[in-house]
């Protein structure tokens, strides 16, 4: 027997014909090594992982996602946002819609009088009491004699919270009381006021803002074109200070002061003045804070008859956005109510496509 055929060392009890002294190293073989990372790389990996968890946490369901406005609200994957007006994903669109509604209402009022409509406005503010100023942060005397909102002073946090909570009910009661007294005065003066006329003698537009001292105030707009509207504005503005004091509110202009400052202004002059809230809500980063403070409250108002005359309100604009999204394949076509169909079609075109000719 040749040496090549001789049995070699046994392996597991079996003879091994070819015993190699060392394992054969195949050419091109790459030895796998465990990667090594620096501390900077590990910190970057941790930051990326944390960012991924913020964008889409692991506990979300398959059909859920977080609102893109960084508000933390869990929404369906098919929705674009949470729909809350103070969310940064909703606020810009909502603020622009507010501006469109206000401008459309003013235009409708001006066109109702052939382009010569006039309005008159005043501000309904909160009252001022001793001890309300936050002296610890402004450094003025303890009696508050040198404190003021334009000077950078603010009221104490508990006062602001309480007055902000009570302001919607107080201003609504004050406006209703002043309007009731004004209508009674006109009737006693012999003005013919029927149900249809009474519907138009009211506040046309109201916009709520925050003063620099931290308390809210509201800009109130009434018509001032016809003789009846002028008489109503005079009686309403003269009754409003007494109604404001009765319901715990503060300063407001009487008619003689308001007419002296803005009696020659046309309604078109108030476009920028009243729509500044819309620009503030749409562009300013602090708009979310303002809307959160006024959560559940109406920060702007347009009279119902004026909104119907203009044909534009927040519901119509929302339906227009949904129709646009449906036409681009993002959702199904909405079921537009009959009372809004004409207004939506004026802005978006026909909702039902005409059949093709044979």
Structural commentary:
Mean pLDDT is 82; it is low at 354-358. This protein starts with 9 loop residues before the first strand and ends in a 10-residue tail after the last helix. It is built from twelve helices and eight strands. The strands form three sheets. It has a four-stranded antiparallel beta sheet, sandwiched between helices. 45% of the residues lie in helices and 9% in strands. It has helices at residues 39-55, 91-112, 135-138, 157-188, 195-200, 227-246, 255-262, 271-283, 287-293, 304-310, 314-327, 338-348, and strands at 10-11, 14-15, 64-66, 74-76, 119-125, 205-210, 216-223, 300-302. It has three domains: 48-82, no CATH class; 109-310, no CATH class; 318-348, no CATH class. Helix 2 packs antiparallel against helix 8, helix 4 crosses helix 6 (227-246) and helix 8 (271-283) crosses helix 9 (287-293). It has 358 residues and is of the alpha+beta class.
Sum up the structure in keywords.
single chain, 358 residues, alpha+beta, 3 domains, four-stranded antiparallel β-sheet, two-stranded antiparallel ribbon, 8 strands
């Amino acid at each position: 027997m040749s040496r090549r055929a001789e049995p070699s060392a046994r392996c597991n009890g079996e003879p091994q014909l070819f015993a190699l002294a060392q394992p054969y190293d195949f050419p091109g073989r790459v030895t796998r090594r465990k990667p090594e990372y620096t501390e900077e790389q590990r910190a970057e990996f941790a930051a990326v992982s944390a960012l991924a968890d913020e964008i889409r946490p692991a506990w979300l369901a398959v059909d859920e996602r977080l609102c893109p406005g960084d508000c933390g609200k869990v929404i369906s994957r098919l929705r674009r946002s949470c729909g809350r007006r103070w969310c940064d994903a909703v606020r810009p669109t909502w603020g622009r819609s507010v501006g469109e509604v206000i401008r459309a209402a003013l235009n409708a009022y001006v066109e109702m009088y052939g382009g010569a409509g006039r309005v008159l406005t005043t501000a309904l503010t909160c009252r001022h009491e001793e001890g309300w100023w936050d002296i610890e942060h402004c450094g003025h005397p303890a009696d508050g004699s040198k404190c003021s909102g334009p000077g950078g002073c603010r009221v104490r946090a508990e006062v602001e919270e309480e007055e902000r909570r009570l302001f919607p009910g107080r201003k609504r009661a004050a406006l209703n009381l002043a309007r009731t007294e004004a209508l009674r005065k006109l009737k006693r003066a012999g003005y013919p006021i029927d149900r249809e006329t009474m519907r138009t003698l009211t506040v046309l537009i109201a916009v709520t803002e925050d003063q620099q001292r931290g308390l809210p105030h509201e800009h109130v707009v009434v018509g001032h074109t016809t003789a009846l509207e002028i008489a109503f504005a005079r009686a309403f503005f003269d009754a409003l200070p007494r109604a404001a004091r009765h319901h715990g509110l503060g300063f407001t202009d009487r008619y003689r002061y308001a007419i002296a400052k803005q009696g020659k202004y046309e309604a078109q002059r108030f476009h920028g003045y009243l729509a500044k809230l819309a620009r503030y809500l749409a562009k300013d980063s602090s708009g979310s804070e303002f809307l959160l403070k006024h959560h559940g409250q109406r920060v702007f108002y347009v009279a119902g008859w004026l909104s119907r005359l203009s044909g534009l309100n927040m519901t119509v604009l929302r339906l227009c956005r949904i129709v646009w999204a449906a036409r681009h394949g993002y959702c199904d076509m909405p079921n537009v109510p009959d009372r809004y169909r004409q207004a939506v079609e004026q802005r978006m075109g026909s909702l039902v496509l005409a059949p093709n000719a044979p």
